[in-house]
Amino acid sequence: MEALEMYTVDDRSDVYTEELKLNLGPQHPSTHGVLRVELSMDGEIITASRCDIGYLHRCAEKIGENVTYLQYTPYTDRMDYLASMNNNLAWSLTVEKLLGVEAPERAQWLRMICAELNRIASHLIAFGTYGIDIGANTPFFYAFRERESIMALLERPSGARMLYNYIQPGGLRRDVDENWVTDVLAFCDDFEKRWAEYNTLLSNNRIFIGRTANIGVIPQDVVYACGATGPVMRGSGIKWDLRRDVPYLKPYEEVDFDVPVGEGTHGTLGDCWDRYWVRMREMMESIRIIRQGCAALPGGEVMEKVMKKMYKTPLTPEAGEAYMRCENPRGELGFYVVAEGGTSPIRCRARAPSFCNLSLLDSLLPGTMIADAVAIIGSLDIVLGEVDR
Amino acid sequence: MNEQQLHDKLRATGLGGIGELESSARDPFVVVEASVLLEVMAFLRDDSETAMEMLHNVTAVQRETGFDVVYHLCSYSRHHSLTLKVIVAQPEGEAGDWEPAVPSVASVYPSANWHEREQWDLLGVRFNDHPDFRRIILPEEWIGHPLRKDYVYPSTFGEIPLELDAIPLYERDENDPPKPSEPRPAGTPLTQPPSEYSTRPDAGGRAPAPEKKGES
Amino acid sequence: MGLLNNTLPDNKLVGAVDTAVGWGRKSSVWPMTFGIACCAIEMMAVFAATFDLDRFGAGIPRATPRQSDLIIVPGTVNAKMAVRVRRLYDQMAEPRYVIAMGACVCGGGPYVKWGYNTVKGVHKIIPVDIFVPGCPPRPEALMDGILKLREKIGREAVFARRNEANTQMNAKYDAVS
């Protein structure tokens, strides 16, 4: 009898539902790695979510306290493995700030070109995998085709396909070959045509817009409160880019580029489509920067002579601390290094952009449909290697 | 505003416990007493001239005398930043597993939530009145805080072997279980000590390379 | 094939049937969609246009362990993840194969000394068929690993009696799981 009453209490609902716990991940194709989210579901509506991270914790901060400053560069590669150049750059700038040296001018320009090339490669992965998350398989193959050309370009000076270890404290490991700049410019010409293809494929696709517009809207105060940076911040309409506002490399002051921000083209300002579109336009801005960089590339050394001498023994900066922020494809990467005079720091903290962007998720998911959860996670574009370090 | 003006502004609020500005450091910082930390943070966030919208980073640093908790604040509308430090000295006679405690700033800046959980997880610094205080990266059953200088590396986690020379799970003989390994001294890494050819700092550093000809 | 597994005598007829079954098995090795770390990106590159793993019949990544024959472990396995890797492996149906991709899963890699929670090689958790070293391995290396795995599958005895060492190894693992 009791069961019957339960069904007849409310005339409007003819189906009895109860809360369902759903585990998303750690092995799930659309969590971009090994993220686990515990979802409480009411039918198809998410009522609560709890992120569980740490499935890729690789002790990077402990390692930083035990190896020398130069030996730590390859470990920064493996934090955000989609944007290794940018991570190398941030670490090198931090150590240079500790040592009080500066890279030679040619090295700075080459650093900028390499970092921007890697930014395009990283955004291409975001574009391709986001398509798969939403249900469009084709963009993935297009994105990887262009990414292979970038990897071939970066492999020539560094010798590695993905984890370059190319930018080092004091400059670059070696100079690029003589045809490299020509090939980079050829890639830029090619890429502009491809970019137009992507937009016909995905960006202006009605189904894609229907799946992403008005979904996962992040208001500006939440962006500040949760510490989100990068395309997530700019997608909500905040015009801030460290490259423009606090230039950490000299060439960024001299080149001319825009900072794309979300405009709410297809829905509310700060939705998934805005974040996606910010990334797409950032690729074109990077192409602009690379073109100007290649035109203005000065000659000279790529490694400070002082540093070359320093490398004969492990680097020993004076006691002190340095905090350096860099604009990575995913947001602001900060390294905080505390030295006490030895060959390795006593604390080596990485403020990972993905870590802060992901902390938004728990407040973003409740109230949305389960299918939109995948779109929202994809639009944050996290790399779990960086979230867990 | 530069750091000096920010510091003057902080001093003008009349809150006690705000130290001098260390302007000789690469990133000038202000040492703040833990008792006024929340008021200082709230002031920096709400004042229209300081307008620190974002808490960029929270770090705990273990030193010989105790712990530093470092807060990096940024203003996106005013283009300036400030570093705050809370120094917790280790009381005399406390053992190595002493857990320092500072107030949590998650009520002022929600972004501190995950950062503070991470510092607790890896360094064992307590943040009082935190909304959701538990480990974030390591499993709940993990013992110890690995970034402590005297951390002892575990050889297993549950039945998962963590040593290089451990016997694989599927090759174990149930009649002859592996003997528990001897406890290691504090801070010892998991594997063998470095060889004499190693360039690791604990191997005495790299031997100086021979001077090449033609290089200044 | 249940009851008949490795029970028939090792003669020419059974050998011919084994070869045919092995050819069928090796030509459709379906891997699982399973990415952990950096190596997963190179694994994705292998599936994508330039390298195109579909040429070897292994180009359809399956999202669930129950439908897949091959688990490529691409990236560092730590203490928290090891339990999950083990469970994923246990959920796969026989015959199942494992490729350890990258230095971390082959023996610790760069995290071997100071990694307090990394498992020094995934072979401590699950039995591995092919090791592909490199940090990360180039796509060609992974493709070579898959080709080697195809050879191995093709040689496997399905109905004929297996040799002694093979049987012992399997019995050991069956006892644990």
Structure at a glance:
The complex is a heterotrimer of chains A (389), B (216) and C (177). Chain B has 216 residues and is α/β, with parallel strands linked by helices.
Outline the fold blueprint.
The complex is a heterotrimer of chains A (389), B (216) and C (177).
Chain A: H1 2-8, E1 20-24, E2 36-42, E3 45-52, H2 60-64, H3 73-77, H4 84-99, H5 105-134, H6 138-158, E4 167-168, E5 171-172, H7 180-203, H8 206-212, H9 220-226, H10 231-235, H11 242-245, H12 250-254, H13 272-296, H14 305-310, E6 320-328, E7 331-339, E8 347-351, H15 353-358, H16 361-364, H17 370-380, H18 384-388
Antiparallel strand pairs in A: 1-2, 2-3, 4-5, 6-7, 7-8
Helix pairs in contact in A: 4-5, 5-6, 5-13, 5-17, 6-7, 7-13, 13-17
Chain B: H1 3-12, E1 18-22, E2 29-32, H2 37-46, E3 54-63, E4 66-75, E5 80-89, E6 101-103, H3 112-123, E7 126-128, E8 156-157, E9 160-161
Parallel strand pairs in B: 2-5, 6-7
Antiparallel strand pairs in B: 1-2, 3-4, 4-5, 8-9
Chain C: H1 12-26, H2 38-47, E1 70-74, H3 79-91, E2 97-101, H4 103-107, E3 130-132, H5 139-155, H6 164-176
How would you characterize this protein structure?
The complex is a heterotrimer of chains A (389), B (216) and C (177). By secondary structure, chain A is of the alpha+beta class. Chain A folds into two domains: 2-50, no CATH class; 61-388, Cytochrome-c3 Hydrogenase, chain B. Helix content of chain A is 50%, strand content 12%. Chain A is built from 18 helices and eight strands. Chain A has helices spanning 2-8, 60-64, 73-77, 84-99, 105-134, 138-158, 180-203, 206-212, 220-226, 231-235, 242-245, 250-254, 272-296, 305-310, 353-358, 361-364, 370-380, 384-388, and strands at residues 20-24, 36-42, 45-52, 167-168, 171-172, 320-328, 331-339, 347-351. In chain A, β6 and β7 form a beta hairpin. In chain A, α5 (105-134) packs antiparallel against α13 (272-296). With 216 residues, chain B is an alpha/beta fold. Chain B folds into two domains: 3-137, NADH:ubiquinone oxidoreductase Nqo5 subunit (Beta Polymerase, domain 2, 2-Layer Sandwich), CATH 3.30.460.80; 152-194, no CATH class. The model of chain B is unreliable at 192-197 (pLDDT under 50). Chain C contains six helices and three strands. Chain C has helices at 12-26, 38-47, 79-91, 103-107, 139-155, 164-176, and strands spanning 70-74, 97-101, 130-132. Chains A and B meet through α9, β6, β7 and β8 of A and β3 and α3 of B.
